[in-house]
UniProtKB/TrEMBL annotation:
Alphabetical keyword list: Coiled coil, GTP-binding, Nucleotide-binding, Signal
Chaperone recorded as keyword: no
Transmembrane spans: none
Domain AIG1-type G: 25-186
Origin: domain of life: Eukaryota
Coiled-coil ranges from the UniProt annotation: 250-334
Protein name, entry field: GTPase imap family member 7-like
InterPro entries linked: G_AIG1 (IPR006703), GIMA/IAN/Toc (IPR045058), P-loop_NTPase (IPR027417)
GO molecular function: GTP binding
Signal peptide positions on this chain: 1-19
Stored PANTHER family: GTP-BINDING PROTEIN A, GTPASE, IMAP FAMILY MEMBER-RELATED
Short name of any one Pfam family annotated for the protein: AIG1
Length: 380
């Protein structure tokens, strides 16, 4: 996300904060995603004296802060109590939040107040990254040149934070490493603390709680020494710019919604057309299936008729064959050839003695041959 827009977001949140109690001092935490802003906020708040997680902490480079979150802390200072409002912001470089969403979050802060800012904590992770340098430089151009007086650089990753000499040396190193920021951070206080995670064995957790308590005391002592409240000189101009941007974005959003509506109507019409085509194809498919079923039924019927005819023809042929076999058996039971031969001999004898008998025999033999040939012809 554009760092300029992020800082615009933070600026607008700050200048529109309105405390219901004039004694509340607003402390804004700014920093890159994963630098430990939310953890630092939990250390300052120290819920139930156990550093319970109220501000959503991140996991590695994954941002835990998706929205502005603020909690009020009451601290005893001498004979009175001082209230601090700790304000945790969306991390610089958070890509999951659009500019439109961010500006809407800004707009929601308007009912809160216009009381100004007691301190800005710019949270780093040991050293300034290139993007953090750009963000730090933009901070003054967006607010005004007075903002530096109300800014403290916080390094919550310094294990030797209770060693004043080590802290001073590291602070000088940070300033010397960033010559382009020299004019801005030369008079800026750098606070070293160690906000270790409360994970691991009970021994480790207790040791980390001890480090957190010492870090908290160091931060509260610094806040107690900070005087005055920051009121940006360009507040009204900046408000108008944000509202103009929101108005333009609203118009653009409406156009997008209208285009989406038209596209949705077009898609619905296309869906209906495709559904009609699909239904027509389904009807055609059913008609083809019906025709195919009818064709199969006809074929099956024809097949049944053909089989029945074949069966009847087979029965007829078997019947004829059986009848022929019966006739053959009947003929085989009568010695008809011999009878014919005898009859021929008798007939010849009746005609004229021996010569007639011979003639009768010849006739009988001729009849026998004729009958045999006939039976061969009819395949009996």
């Amino acid at each position: 996300m554009n760092f300029h827009i992020v800082l615009l977001f933070i600026h607008f949140f700050l200048v529109t904060l309105k405390a219901h109690d004039n004694q509340v001092r607003n402390i804004m935490l700014i920093g890159r995603t994963g630098n430990g802003k939310s953890t630092l906020a939990n250390v300052l708040l120290n819920k139930n004296d156990e550093f319970e997680e109220v501000f959503k902490e991140s996991s590695g480079s994954i941002s835990g802060t998706k929205d502005i979150q603020n909690e009020v802390l009451k601290v005893k200072s001498g004979n009175k109590y001082v209230k601090y409002r700790i304000i945790d912001t969306v991390g610089l470089g958070e890509n999951n939040i659009t500019i439109q969403e961010m500006l809407k979050k800004i707009a929601k802060t308007i009912p809160f107040v216009d009381e100004g800012l007691h301190r800005i904590f710019f949270v780093i992770r040991n050293r300034f990254t290139e993007n953090e340098k750009k963000a730090y430089l933009l901070k003054e151009s967006i607010f005004d040149n007075e903002v530096v007086k109300y800014t403290t650089i916080i390094n919550p990753w310094f294990s030797d934070f209770e060693n004043e000499t080590a802290c001073k040396d590291d602070g000088l190193k940070i300033k010397n490493e960033n010559q382009e920021l020299a004019d801005f951070i030369k008079s800026t206080r750098i606070i070293h603390v160690n906000t270790l995670p409360l994970k691991g064995s009970s021994y480790i957790v207790n040791a980390h709680k001890k480090a957190r308590k010492a870090s908290r005391q160091k931060l509260l002592a610094h806040l107690n020494n900070c005087q005055g409240t920051y009121h940006p000189s360009n507040l009204n101009i900046f408000k108008e710019q944000v509202w103009d941007y929101l108005s333009e974005e609203e118009i653009s959003l409406r156009r997008e919604l209208e285009n989406e509506r038209k596209l949705r109507i077009k898609l619905e019409e296309e869906e209906r057309r495709l559904r009609r085509e699909l239904e027509e194809k389904e009807v055609q498919k059913r008609e083809l299936e019906d025709k195919e079923r009818m064709r199969r039924r006809l074929l099956e019927k024809e097949e049944r008729i053909r089989r029945r005819e074949l069966e009847e023809e087979e029965k007829r042929l078997r019947k004829e064959l059986k009848e022929k076999e019966t006739k053959i058996r009947e003929l085989e039971t009568i010695p008809y050839v011999r009878v014919l031969s005898i009859l021929g001999s008798i007939g010849g004898a009746m005609l004229s003695g021996v010569s007639g008998a011979v003639l009768g025999a010849v006739i009988g033999v001729g009849l026998e041959t004729a009958v045999t040939d006939f039976m061969k012809y009819i395949n009996i």
